[in-house]
Design brief:
Length: 180
């Protein structure tokens, strides 16, 4: 490319570029005032609508206020509900066996712990003692200090507790807890 060609190219670029810039500026200059007017108009219209005073009867504030509180109430109730959790077999912690109300807890490994007998009638924790229920057989007596209710199991204490545990595990397996 000769230096003359180069000069011509530069001139063409300047002329064409200048024309495009001038056209854009001109068009923008013609369009901008209308555009600006439209933006300002829209904003002031929205502002006027939003800021317009309306007369609302006072009683209407009550439902509006209550409605606004709903999400907060829902959140609080939701939290409260989520703590007792959905019912699982681990919520099965009370049942009646052998005329006695039994309550218990579960260890991490699902073992039943704190298996305690309560009076079927007055809910007092029962007093337990082993005694002969026949000439050769020792059994466990459950005695209520309050109402005098007595229940007897034909097993020594350790076996009686094991017997009750087996019933609990059976009821867990049979999903009896679902009805509790
Ligand atoms: Zn009692």
């Amino acid at each position: 490319m000769s230096s003359k060609d180069s000069t011509v190219t530069k001139i063409v670029i300047v002329v064409v570029g200048g024309s495009i810039l001038a056209s854009v500026t001109y068009v923008a200059g013609r369009i901008w005032p209308a555009f600006e007017q439209w933006i300002v108009g829209s904003i002031s219209t929205i502002a006027a609508v939003v800021a317009a005073p309306v007369s609302v009867p006072l009683w209407l504030f009550l439902p509006i206020f209550a409605f606004a509180l709903l999400p907060i109430v829902g959140f609080v109730l939701g939290r409260r509900k989520s703590f007792p959790r959905t019912t699982t077999w681990r919520d099965f912690k009370e049942a009646e066996y052998f005329g006695v109300v039994w309550r218990w807890l579960y260890e991490r490994d699902d073992t039943i712990i704190h298996l305690i007998p309560y009076c079927l009638h007055c809910n007092l924790q029962l007093n337990t003692s082993e005694r002969y229920i026949s000439q050769y057989q020792r059994g466990t007596e459950f005695h209520c200090d309050d109402c005098g209710q007595v229940a007897t199991m034909p097993d020594e204490k350790v076996e009686a507790w094991k017997k009750v545990s087996r019933r609990i595990y059976r009821d867990i397996a049979n999903e009896v807890w679902k009805g509790k």
